Amino acid sequence: MDPLDILHAARHPDPYPWYRRLAAHADALVRDDRLDLWIAARPDVVRAALAEPALRVRPPDAPVPAPLAGSPAGDWFGRLVRMNDGAQTHAAGRAALVAGLHAVTPADAQAAVLAACALPFGGPGWTEDLPLRAVATLLGVPPPAHADVLAHVHTLAAAVGGRSDAAPASAAARALREVLGEVAAHAPPGSLVGTVARQPWPVCEALVDNLAGLLTQTCDATAGLLGNAVVAVARGARPDDAEALVDAVLRDDPPIHHTRRFAADAVSLAGTALPPGANVLVVLVGADLAFGGGRHACPGASLARWITVAGLREARARGWPWPEPAGYRPLPNARIPVFRP
């Protein structure tokens, strides 16, 4: 049975034949009137959409999701580099994050995973906990603060996805700003945070808010990648070559299935005239763009892969159980498996 629609595909047991038929559609852009959006699924159209400067990451009239507008959580969201366009709010901040992420080596990621594995956690949720704890370690968050930080990150991620209101998300944003502000103030010069902190930021809050953004992105992309790799093992894939396994999952069962773009002005995409405000859903599956593309491609793609590879190796070395998948989280664009207890 096919998915109900594009917003239900990521949680479907096997949406990939449906995605292939969508990409082979006669029209370059497929109109979904019920969802009031255009779907770009053909790889050449996907790349054109991600490269088109008139297509932005947020609707022109809604830079912040309505439920968060006017709240501290909305302020946090509005300062995220990945949720902005333009030279100051996006390009400069992205350059700072890229510089910090380039300061991280595969050995650093391996050490962070080892440190995270030494902390007391486990059970079927380890595929979601481990990446977050590893990134928290790389950021310099003290281990005793990990549990609270992870709880705050999950609250913010839920709010972005419309699954939590502004009040708990605002409390989480304030708490993360306090913890990460302290981390940034004492970060070693050559570290991820130390490198990011040396770059110019339009406002001081933008630095710590985007450090929190690295954690919320890990919540979906890296946790989904590790989880889908574990699903592959449960279905018969060999875990002894972790790098090959992760590359196969990125190709065949990626964690992020699509992203959104909104027309800031009237624009023509693949021969289709789009009015200002048009909503374009860009399918990443099948375009070899597991971490996006264009100016908003994920700067942490390599780090996510390193953490996943190291996590698989450590799980195998420690004899952790490979939990059986029970389904997927009800998210519109992220494929994150849920495992049986």
Please name the defining characteristics of this protein.
9 strands; 10% strand; two-stranded antiparallel sheet; 341 residues; alpha+beta; globular
Describe how the helices and strands are arranged.
Layout: H1 16-23, E1 29-32, E2 37-40, H2 43-51, E3 55-56, H3 72-78, H4 87-102, H5 106-117, H6 126-139, H7 146-160, H8 166-185, H9 192-197, H10 204-234, H11 242-252, E4 258-263, E5 267-269, E6 272-274, E7 279-283, H12 301-318, E8 325-328, E9 337-339
Parallel strand pairs: 2-7
Antiparallel strand pairs: 1-2, 3-4, 4-7, 5-6, 8-9
Structural write-up:
The protein has 341 residues and is α+β, with helices and mostly antiparallel strands. The chain has 12 helices and 9 strands. It has helices spanning 16-23, 43-51, 72-78, 87-102, 106-117, 126-139, 146-160, 166-185, 192-197, 204-234, 242-252, 301-318, and strands at 29-32, 37-40, 55-56, 258-263, 267-269, 272-274, 279-283, 325-328, 337-339. It has a 5-stranded mixed β-sheet. Strand 5 (267-269) and strand 6 form a beta hairpin. Helix 11 crosses helix 12 (301-318). The longest helix is centred in the middle third of the chain and has 31 residues, at 204-234. The protein is globular, with a radius of gyration of 19 Å.
